[in-house]
Amino acid sequence: MSDSGIIFLLEDGRLAGPHVYIARMLKHLPGKNKVLIPEDSNQVQELFDEYKVDYETTFFLSRLSREPLRILRYFIFFIPEIIFLAIFLLKSNQKTIYCAGGSWQIKGAISGFFARKKVIWHLNDTYSPFVIRFIFSYLSYLADGYIFASKATKKYYENLIYERSRMVIQAPVDEIKFGSIAREYDLSKKNLITIGTVCNINPLKNLEDFIEIARDLNMMKKYNLSFKVFGPTFKSQQNYKNKLMELVDKYDVQNIEFCGPSDRIHNDLEKMDIFLFTSKSESSPISIWEAMMSGLPVATYKVGDVDDYIIDGENGFTAEVFDWKKLSLSISSLIDKNLSYKISLESKKVAEKYFSSKNCAKLHIEYIQKFID
User: How confident is the model at residue 249 (pLDDT cuts 50, 70, 90)?
Assistant: First the structure.
């Protein structure tokens, strides 16, 4: 790959999967790469500092939001931001712009087109509102190529985009941080079994079912359990969080804790014994891949590309979305039959083969080569 490098552009300054994705991949990606992010992105900047990512912040990047003032700013500054970005890209030596974060992040594609850069659009979800899909479909010709975070994402978007080169690359996991975790697999020796999850608190994560499973396992009165949810609650999702707490109170689930955001997820996973994921819509669920790499047995709904990497009962447990009872029974069986070591060993083998950040970077190099040489 040419050493001219790539500019990665992220319109959202809230720490989430795309930022982690880029930080991990850039550890292994050659060239003079740079990331452009909004000014209001303190957690993202801390992450990039940790991974020694070369980045710049700018006032001229605003995101879509449900918050009225942010929506107003987005439309008022839309054209000035496109002009700023186009000038920024024209002055840069990099030949390629990588639009990360999803179909709604259109400013990078527009400005990259005007600046006559090669544009790669990274898509990472399996749901977007109709208006976003319509606009994206109209603008999709601006991209020279597409990278999909999963087969599920490719299937969701492939009929909306122009004929362009495309490739599926799963979200990367830091194999050093997550692959070196030591844990006790014999759950019969544990006085307290911790079942946890990692996600942003929002309706797509379907945490009602996480609470249902906690209630169901508690009612069996067979185990001493603790349930933990790690992840931030943005202002726009506070009402949803309140509804979850009402459900916790209604069911009297006293052993569940919402721990808030964490910048040391590998440490949080080390404290867990079982990883439970109840999201109803995902693409490449990086939280699951991280749990697998860390040697945790995983119980999850069949979302995104989960079925391609987890075989129910062999290297994890799966169920159809909303079938929380099956996941609850699977976790009970895991504990009763002491299957944690067997399941985790097979799960980690899959993670090491498919989800390492080195592998992710290698696939990107192969794909991007054709655009910039």
Answer: very high
